[in-house]
Design a protein that fits this description.
Length: 617
């Protein structure tokens, strides 16, 4: 990671810079963004637009009413005799009403912005999760994918800013339209002057926004590492080892180094932004006062009325600040739109493993079985190594196959290919004579149940932890209980005060932690929930005591009666129960046969079996 960071300062800052063209192009994301907002709540969307339209007309109207009031006052004060002030009070009343209306609408708009923002954040979160579910396992093992995911995730809450930003922009633009029309009637040059006055600070701001986006983007991996360090430094899952190995100092140091580095770079940017900001806005202010002097002089020489003076000066001030706001917002808007690009980039990632257009019905029951035809597989992130190579064998229908091999031999990889978590890099896997890729992916996954060695310990109730085997059946309590009985999880659950509703893991409320073997019994229950035709257990009993292991396999034999199963195990007491044993070495098939046939062959299996048997003597 540190290496990567050093490289970045030399070569990737350029790459991370975003050109003007890209910034404008990013605005093209706005329609898609508004579609998201519209989908979040059409009613609030329309309400927001309408209220903002009304509000946009208020500043110009107020200024104009103000002008009329002053002209009235001047006229009345010049009159001799009793003055008729009816019209004056009407005007004052109108200005008061406008002020009240403006505040009321302002409040309503921020309320709607807030509500709409929350709905939008929820909607984006849901879409992020839904999209993640469609992606390939391989994509989750790719660091650049995580960077994208991370940037997209940051979009969920930040997009509220964009929402009110864009709506606010439109409102301001309309408001400027009204005010500008008034100014143009007196002197169109005034409008031009305002534009020139605000340009320097606009350019400056744009430049700094771009730098800050580049900085934040180029730091995505480090920010992820910071999040990770924060998690490792303070979580129930790591606390044990952090304490025992005294890792806290190491973790804190690493966090401090990274975060300080980021802070320093951010600080440098923030300071130069503030300095330039003062200078460039100063230029704008000078331009503004130049025009102001011109207006005042015209009033003094009697070319415009006192009311005109206040109207012009007010409009001028308002247009300038609105324009400044718009231009400033514009640069942050393009920046937000670029962030939005990250979100849409993430949504654009397509899974490579999916169902074909026309699918073949999944055989029920499976007649021939699964045939590996010269299968080879490389993980995308270690493309120079074959995890499996030249693998050919058939897992017959109804057969119980055990996979044996040393660590890293490729056993789990083989299983992942069977479940189509990956597709073979070369060769193919046939199911009843047809490529596994021709079947509907959901049906394949439904008919193949796998309990992995690194199964997930969901911080949810014990019942749900079993029901994940077939989540649609989560309310089917008898089924859950039956599965628990078969996997011996029922004895674990009987000891829990909350029974099946007991929260597991210590992260939430009254959650309780289980022992490794107890968790494994719960996870095994998932295999019984599913009515799969092929059941795969990847080291299912590694954490179980000898008696529990024996019992689990007695029951497993019943479960898999008439179905196919694959068991990965380093325990030969388990392995020998299989119909056939496939020995893998460095990703290749070394030998395959029944326990007795392989012992007779006196090859690697016999050697490993002998080693373990001697250990027990
Ligand atoms: N996600 C991955 N990305 C890259 N390489 C991987 C990945 N998973 C496994 N490998 C590599 O593929 C090879 C086979 O791994 P696999 O997990 O299939 O071994 P295994 O036989 O199940 O080992 P064990 O007995 O330790 O569970 C190993 O060299 C491993 O380093």
């Amino acid at each position: 990671m540190y290496m990567a960071r050093q490289n970045k300062t030399t070569n990737s800052t350029d790459k991370e810079d975003v050109s003007w063209r890209e910034r404008f192009a990013a605005l093209g994301n706005l329609p898609a963004f508004f579609r998201l907002v519209w989908q979040a709540s059409p009613g609030l969307f329309i309400g927001n637009v309408l209220l903002r339209l009304i509000r946009a007309a208020i500043p110009a109207t107020t200024l104009y009413v103000g002008k009329l009031i002053i002209d009235q006052v001047v006229q009345l004060s010049g009159q001799s005799g009793p003055a008729d002030t009816t019209q004056l009070w009407w005007l004052v009343g109108a200005e008061f009403a406008l002020a009240v209306l403006s505040t009321g609408i302002g409040r309503a708009v921020s309320l709607i912005d807030g509500l709409l923002g929350d709905l939008l954040a929820n909607r984006i979160s849901v879409q992020l999760m839904e999209h993640a579910a469609t992606l390939d396992l391989e994509q989750f093992e790719d660091a650049t994918f995580y960077d994208k995911l991370e940037r997209a995730r940051r979009q969920t809450s930040g997009r509220t800013v964009l929402l009110s930003g864009v709506f606010g922009q439109v409102q301001e633009l309309i408001s400027i339209g009204f005010l500008g029309a008034g100014l143009a009637v007196y002197n169109p040059w005034l409008l031009l002057l305002i534009l020139v006055a605000v340009t320097p600070s606009f350019i400056g701001d744009n430049y700094f926004n771009q730098r800050s986006y580049s900085l934040s983007r180029s730091w995505t991996p480090e920010r992820r590492e910071l999040d990770y360090l924060r998690y490792v430094g303070a979580s129930d899952e790591t606390a044990k080892e952090v304490k025992i190995f005294g890792l806290s100092g190491f973790l804190v140091d690493r966090f401090r180094t990274l975060s300080t580095d980021f802070f320093q770079q951010n600080k440098k940017l923030a300071i130069s932004r503030a300095g330039w900001g003062v200078l460039l806005t100063g230029l704008g202010t000078a331009g503004y006062y130049g025009a102001y002097v011109w207006i005042v002089l015209r009033a003094v020489t009697g070319q415009i009325s006192l009311g005109d003076l206040t109207f012009l000066a007010g409009s001028f001030r308002q247009v300038r600040s609105s324009l400044e706001g718009i231009l400033l917002q514009f640069s942050s808007l393009t920046q937000e739109a670029i962030y939005l690009q990250d979100l849409f980039d993430y949504f654009a990632i397509k899974p490579l493993i999916h169902s074909p257009r026309t699918t073949r019905p999944f055989p029920s029951p499976i007649r021939e079985g699964f045939t590996f035809e010269n299968v080879g597989f490389k993980y995308a992130n270690s493309a120079d190594r074959w995890a499996l190579r030249n693998l050919s064998f058939t897992l017959q229908a109804g057969e119980k196959l055990a996979l044996v091999g040393e660590n890293g031999a490729g056993k789990t990889t083989l299983v992942k290919l069977l479940a189509r978590l990956y597709d073979p890099t070369e060769g193919r896997i046939l199911l009843d004579g047809y490529d596994l890729r021709e079947y509907d992916l959901d049906e394949v996954r439904h008919n193949i149940g796998v309990i992995f060695q690194d199964y997930t310990r969901f911080k949810m109730s014990a019942g749900v932890n079993i029901a994940v085997g077939d989540i649609d059946e989560r309310t089917n309590q008898p089924r859950i209980q039956q599965s628990a009985e078969r996997s011996l999880a029922d004895t674990v659950i009987a000891k829990l005060s909350g029974g099946y509703d007991q929260q597991l893991g210590r992260s939430f409320g009254k959650g309780v932690e289980l022992s490794g073997g107890e968790w494994q019994k719960i996870a095994l229950g998932r295999a019984y929930m599913r009515d799969a035709q092929l059941i795969i257990l990847d080291e299912p009993t590694a954490a179980l005591d000898a008696r529990a292991e024996y019992e689990v396999f007695q029951r497993f034999a019943q479960l898999t009666e008439g179905r196919s199963s694959v068991i990965i195990s380093h325990r030969f007491s388990t392995v020998r129960m299989a119909d056939r044993i496939l020995v893998l070495e460095n990703g290749s098939l070394l030998e395959i046969g029944s326990h007795y046939a392989l012992l007779e062959k006196d090859g690697r299996y016999a050697e490993l079996f002998g080693l373990q048997a001697r250990g027990y003597q």
